[in-house]
Specification:
The structure is a single chain. Helices cover 0% and strands 50% of the residues. By secondary structure, it is an all-beta fold. The protein has one domain (17-108): Sandwich (Jelly Rolls). Strands 1, 2, 3, 4, 5, 6, 7 and 8 form an eight-stranded antiparallel beta sheet that branches. A hairpin with a 2-residue loop joins strand 4 and strand 5 (75-80). Pfam families: Cupin_2. This is Cupin. Residues 41-108 form the Cupin type-2 domain. It comes from Ruthenibacterium lactatiformans.
Length: 116
């Protein structure tokens, strides 16, 4: 049973090549998801965004191609390929694509003691 899906196993891959977005799109590709962690690739077309929301877990974004703008609790961050930002749990945040860009999102959720 594979815990990581939608990506080749035992092969070298370039994450940026695994996803693309056409004009007017935000595309996501889930690689893993359970009650503890979620790992998702995103591709944003120029001008697209994900509006303000929050998460029960800490959300770590790594830009893998292009540049993205992130607003966390009112503070703006501009990230380029290879840069990472952690957006703390429960803080409102949004994602904006002034130009097309791609990112890897990893969310780590609080442990649910009933699962132990």
């Amino acid at each position: 049973m594979a815990f990581i899906k939608n990506i080749e196993h035992e092969e070298i891959v370039r994450l940026a090549d695994e996803i693309s977005a056409n004009t007017g799109q935000v595309v996501s590709k889930t690689l893993a998801q359970n009650s503890c962690v979620s790992i998702t690739l995103f591709a944003f077309a120029k001008g697209e965004e994900i509006g303000t929301h929050d998460s029960a877990g800490d959300a770590m974004v790594t830009v893998i191609e292009g540049k993205g703008r992130f607003v966390v609790d009112g503070r703006e961050y501009c990230l380029s390929a290879g840069e990472t930002l952690v957006m703390p749990a429960r803080k409102p945040h949004s994602v904006h694509a002034e130009d097309a860009f791609k990112m890897l999102l990893t969310v780590v959720f609080p442990r649910n003691d009933s699962e132990t």
